[in-house]
Amino acid sequence: MEKQNQPDAKTIRLIAIIAVALGVLGIIKYIWAEHSQNNPIDQGNKIATPTLFMHGYGGSVNSERYFAQQAKEEGYAKEAVVATVGSNGHVTLKGKIEADDKHPIVLVNLKDNKNSDMKLNALWIKNVLEALKQDYQFKQYNIVTHSMSNLSFANYMIKYGNNADLPELNKQVNIAGTFNGIIGINDEPGKVTVDDNGKPDQMTDGYLDLLNLKKVAAYEKVSILNIYGDIGDGSNSDGRVTNASSKSLKYIMNHHAKSYQEHLIKGKQGQHSQLHESKEVAESIFKFLWK
Q: Which of 142, 151, 229, 236 has the fewest beta carbons closer than 10 A?
């Protein structure tokens, strides 16, 4: 009878080492899983969908505090977190988002608040989202932009909107959007008209760039509210931005985003800077985002 081959001592020792190593790895994996479950702060605290508020050219965090205060007084949100972006792009977060805050608010404060490089502003928005992700777990976010920050965020979406490593945009509120020009710079009252689809009969170079938003697939899941003002002096503007410029967003988003709607604010509250101090605007935002 032929003798069967038996594993030598060296092979037996190797098998034993592998078995021990696998056992140790299993124990480590179990301990880590237990630790992660019992210490979620190690993974970032889970929070509800945060809403970012951004000020316009020359503005500051004070330009956004009215909305945050109203949201707090009406029981929608708790104390807002302030995300300050230095001129070097570094983000500092002040405050803490509580786990039971149903509608966390983050006020974005740009130190270089007169920077007109929209692509750089777009990078700074990305930095804010990444800083928030380091401290908190959330999959999506909302954003409210006023005046120039509308263009900053549009450039963010063009460059980073389809980036799967970043949180997804859920709802977007645009206030006094300078999409197709600013009075006294590249637009004047009555200069441009828009048709029923929001298409302007004249397009600035900046607006032509914004047409690239139609290529951002992420907008298919995004709901948009576009708020603009008319002070009623015959200029069809908020005193700084024509309604034609603000309403030109419709041509880009109406059949591209998940949903698109507009809200006109008339009278004194429709003035460019008053739009971020208006109770009517605040209620429109809260209803759109949270009700």
A: 236
Cα separation, 51 vs 101, whole angstroms: 12
Indicate if 53 and 22 belong to the same structural domain. no
Alpha-carbon distance of 52 to 59, in angstroms, equals 15
Q: pLDDT tens for residues 16-56?
A: 677 666 765 665 555 444 544 444 434 569 999 999 999 99
Residues 34 and 148 in one domain: no
Q: Is 2 inside any structural domain?
A: no
How far from each other are the two terminal CA atoms of the chain, in whole angstroms? 85
Q: Are residues 160 and 28 in the same domain?
A: no
Dihedral in degrees, nearest 10, Cα atoms 146, 148, 150, 154 = -160
Q: What confidence tens digit (pLDDT) does each residue in 249-267 have? A: 999 999 999 999 999 999 9
* Same structural domain, 36 and 55: no
Question: What is the number of domains present in the chain?
Answer: 2
